[in-house]
Amino acid sequence: SGSAPVHRRFRRHAEPEILRAAATVRAKFPKTRKNTAGYALDHFLDTRQLLDLFIGSEGTLGIVTEVDLTLDPRPACVSSILVALPTLDALQPAVEAVRTFDPAAIEFLDSSYLRIAEYDAFATEQWAGALLIDFEGDGEQVGATAQDAAGAAGGFGITTRVANTPDEREQLWALRHAASPVLSRLPDTRRSLQIIEDGCVPPAQLGTYITAVHAIADDLHVPIVAFGHAGDGHLHVNALADITDPRCVATLGELLHQGTRLAIELGGTPSGEHGDGRLRTGGVADLYGPEILRLFHHTKTAFDPAGILNPGVIITEDADPVLADLKVGTEATVIPDDVAGALRAVERSGNWGVSRLELPDASPPP
User: Fold this and answer.
1) DSSP β-bridge partners for residue 105
2) How far is C-alpha 228 from the chain's CA centre?
3) Were 119 and a residue from 178, 207, 286, 333 both cysteine, which residue would form a disulfide, CB within 3.0 to 4.6 Å?
4) Which residues have a Cβ under 8 Å from the Cβ of 229 and sit 6 or more positions away?
5) pLDDT, tens digit, for every residue of 166-219?
């Protein structure tokens, strides 16, 4: 009985408005390979299925109680290649060269990442970045495809390496995880914070985006570490903020503001795959404009007329600063030392599956 009224409200009130604004929706939504900002009105126009609005709505339209999944079988054969880049100018042609071989993944590691990586299989000091690329299939031709792709990308790289066996692949992909130990050992005065870590631009703009993000961070004197998914034009950025600086939160707010504006100016989105949350909700209006925002409000009201589902996410009327609830900074809420220590241990270990409600009981006595 609960779903029928929602269905009817949406079909009667929100859907006609969305259909009338179809041309605006098509024009305003970014032409990126990934986009989780706002509600997926563009996908809804393609399918007219409410499920496409619900997916990625971050608990603002309803609660998922059960999911049926169909899993694809694991590929029988996987090969990988490494392409070391001499400059960022080589990034896009190298990606386009390997894309013609239908790779399963194209990961990018920025020079800022390589500088802190604890990895001695290669001397990476002169690399402007590196690509790690996977090819999957059911036969031995996968290895030949990887070899051909390495040859095609080799004209743009300092070095290329092909890995066909599990041990060889593990050695290459160890580079992808080699910075984590360093980030986990940051002193208590410095934290790795994901402030602009989800920007996605058209792949041809990725090199421009990376260069400009570094320029913004340098101007604000905030060290960053960047990596991402080159095939999608998607970049993750960790800001290594000095939390003892009294201007820390204000500086991070400026980093967020400029990073959001940059992604939009390049035809991208500030929310590639992780959604808006509360951090990026303020950028939704900047990305889409008032007409699309009005359609988001209609959609939200149809599903949640009382406004009780995850308020402040995707749509907000809150005038408080976007970083008001940041866990660091001089204005951050003080929490007991034992809980703070347990939370820091979770960050350092990457054990994000631990329930925060269990931390007080799990914390050692002072």
Assistant:
1) 134
2) 8
3) 178
4) 105, 106, 107, 108
5) 999 999 999 998 998 888 888 888 999 999 999 999 999 999 999 999 999 999
